[in-house]
Amino acid sequence: MSKVLVAMSGGVDSSVAAQLLLEQGHECIGATMMLARNSTCCRLEDAIDAKSVCIKLGIPHLTFDLTREFDQEVIRRFVEGYAAGATPNPCIQCNRWLKFGLFWQRAQALGCEYIATGHYARAQRDEQGIMQLYTAADTLKDQSYVLYPSVPEVLEHLLLPLGDIASKDEVRAIAQRCGFDNAHKHDSQDICFVPDGDYAAFLERQDGFDSSEGDIVDMNGKVLGRHKGIGHYTIGQRKGLNVSLGKRMYVVDIDPVSNTVVMGDTSALMSQDFDAIQALWPSGVAQDVIHADAVVSYHGYRHPATITRTGQESFHVHTDEPIRAIAPGQSAVIYDGDRVVCGGIIIKGNHVRA
């Protein structure tokens, strides 16, 4: 069989992925990426957990210190996104630049034909023989949304052993049967490099991030109050605004140029049209127009839509019905049934009045 470099975070999913690959006859090497200091994953303790599993499996274990690259490609983009008034998803950037970039390069240098992760998704050939990215059998755990950056040259060499497993309980049962100490280890939550979940405090500690106060205004520009810094806000937010208007009002826009937070009612959050940039097509096949489902947040609802390719790395989405609180910086991932068609970073949409 093939030589595989398995990305092992120290968690149960990647541990079971390695076990399943060995059962299939592959030659495996486990590798842990050391990414962010003070994170909830990829810490020294996680590397120790991963090494313990590798010893039990009888395979080598390596560690890659990618803290500098993680800071540059993931944290920097996260900070820049918030500074631009967006709400970025760092997990997608981590997958694009580190797992499907640097990790794959390390695998090739080690003579590996494939990389593998413990993500819940499937990489399979369609009837025409084209490698495609599909949703996982376990729809509750499906992670295909964050895997759309697996471009063709990577997808051809990506193994996802957990894609056909029915449930997380089954994964834990395999780990327990194998005697893994991490069989009941909790899944990581939130953004790994902001373990306390306080994004605003994290942003305020970053060099060059403008955390100064500014005006909260309505859609006509009338000043309603003061905000604590744009890093505290995201589209659709209602709590923590410290503005009392006698009716429900939400953040509908964030303008970093004027350092203002714009508030409006629910109708101002509704949109049917938006564009996505930095678009990627996992299969490499980019259709000009397709009617499919758009998902605009991780584990979000599917919205039937017409997707029109507008460039080599961009597409436009027109949904059949208005969507509430589309946040620039999040990813729009397009699904045709259980197949991932493409994905890209959302830029501002056009609001419609209900």
From TrEMBL:
GO terms for cellular component: cytoplasm. Pfam families: tRNA_Me_trans (PF03054), tRNA_Me_trans_C (PF20258), tRNA_Me_trans_M (PF20259). One of its GO terms (molecular function) is ATP binding. It comes from the Bacteria. ATP binds at A7, M8, S9, G10, G11, V12, D13, S14, M33, G118. GO terms for biological process: methylation; tRNA wobble position uridine thiolation. Residues 209-265 form the tRNA-specific 2-thiouridylase MnmA-like central domain. Residues 141-143 are annotated as: Interaction with tRNA. Keywords: ATP-binding, Cytoplasm, Disulfide bond, Methyltransferase, Nucleotide-binding, RNA-binding, Transferase, tRNA processing, tRNA-binding. It catalyses: S-sulfanyl-L-cysteinyl-[protein] + uridine(34) in tRNA + AH2 + ATP = 2-thiouridine(34) in tRNA + L-cysteinyl-[protein] + A + AMP + diphosphate + H(+). Its main location: cytoplasm. The record marks H119, Q330 as: Interaction with tRNA. The active site is at C94 (nucleophile), C192 (cysteine persulfide intermediate). Its EC number is 2.8.1.13. Belongs to the MnmA/TRMU family. HAMAP family: tRNA_thiouridyl_MnmA. This is tRNA-specific 2-thiouridylase MnmA. The lineage of its organism: Bacteria, Bacillati, Actinomycetota, Coriobacteriia, Coriobacteriales.
